[in-house]
Specification:
Layout lengths: L6 E6 L4 E6 L14 E9 L4 E2 L5 E5 L12 E2 L2 E8 L10 E5 L5 E6 L6 E5 L4 E9 L10 E6 L4 E8 L3 E9 L10 E6 L4 E7 L5 E8 L2 E9 L11 E5 L4 E8 L40
Parallel strand pairs: 7-13, 14-20
Antiparallel strand pairs: 1-2, 1-3, 3-5, 4-6, 7-10, 8-9, 8-11, 11-12, 14-17, 15-16, 15-18, 18-19
Length: 294
């Protein structure tokens, strides 16, 4: 395909300048009236979309014939990196990727467009490259996989990378009787292999613990390790499931501590009428119980 707008410098061997010439729509520079001899032809400005061939050529010009020299400019490959939510397939902006050459030397770090979730790169030679996500969008799990990609002259290569949204947890601790919040209750969150995911989780004045979207979706175990002194510790380990991109709300009740009073009514002495002996249990007695605030 002919390329218009490419500039060439033509000089004699001793460096004297003949002129600068630009290729036309047919991709041709026509230079008439040259004397017989040798000239140095150099491409000095190519197109942004093509790799310039800047190697100077010594060209022999003979009279009475059309002397030709052919330059081939290869069209640069285009790399499109497309980032999306693995659940909704919506584009994700603000994600940073590192592009490396075949020796894994860094070429540059680029950020996906906020609206399209894409990075569009060109200006690289044909060959093998490596791509790695180095910074995820808030609320998503980083995919640090190093991807090997091959680019070809004049071809567009598209790489799609999906990010898994992280989950969040909202835990509320309340009294089993009046449903009022219980502050100061401490929990530990484990995965199913009993690895600690989060500790030092303590309910606030509203009886709430909120974990932001920093946890991968999945099943977890929640264990209560300390509670308010006026309540019974719930020793049952609870299994909860966190869903990607969602806030899972868990309400756990604690039973208040209650004291017990045992009253035994006995005869103070032997009673002739009932024949009850001293210390014998007496049924049918009625008692009233008051707290010390009345």
């Amino acid at each position: 395909k002919p390329l218009a707008g490419v500039q060439f410098s033509v000089k004699e061997l001793d460096g004297r300048d003949i002129g600068t010439f630009t290729s036309d729509e047919a991709g041709i520079c026509y230079i008439p009236n040259l004397k017989k001899g040798f000239y140095v032809v150099t491409e000095i400005r190519g197109l942004a979309t093509h790799k310039a061939d800047t190697l100077s050529r010594n060209v022999r010009v003979e009279t009475g014939k059309l002397n030709k020299v052919v330059y081939t400019n290869y069209e640069y490959p285009v790399l499109i990196v497309r980032k999306m939510d693995s659940e909704t397939m919506q584009p994700l902006g603000g994600v940073r990727f590192r592009l490396m050459d075949r020796y894994q030397r860094e070429i540059g770090v680029y950020t996906t467009h906020e609206a399209t979730g894409q990075i569009i790169l060109t200006g690289m030679d044909e060959g093998e490259f490596y791509l790695q996500e180095v910074e995820a969008k808030d609320g998503y799990r980083l995919d640090s996989t190093v991807r090997k990609i091959s680019l070809q002259w004049g071809k567009t290569t598209t790489v799609e990378v999906k990010n898994t949204p992280l989950a969040s947890l909202r835990l509320k601790k309340v009294s089993s009787e009046d449903k009022k919040p219980i502050p100061g209750v401490e929990f530990i969150l484990y995965d199913l292999k009993n690895n600690v995911v989060a500790n030092n989780l303590v309910t606030d004045q509203d009886g709430i613990i909120e974990l932001p979207r920093t946890i991968p979706a999945g099943k977890y175990r929640l264990r209560e390790i300390r509670t308010d002194p006026n309540f019974i510790l719930d020793e049952q380990v609870k299994t909860i499931e966190l869903k990607a991109g969602e806030t899972t709300e868990v309400i756990i009740e604690n039973e208040p501590k209650r004291g017990k009073i045992q009253i035994t009514k006995v005869a103070g002495a032997e009673t002739p009428i009932t024949k009850d002996k001293e210390g014998a249990p007496l049924g049918g007695a009625v008692f009233e119980i008051y707290n010390n605030k009345m």
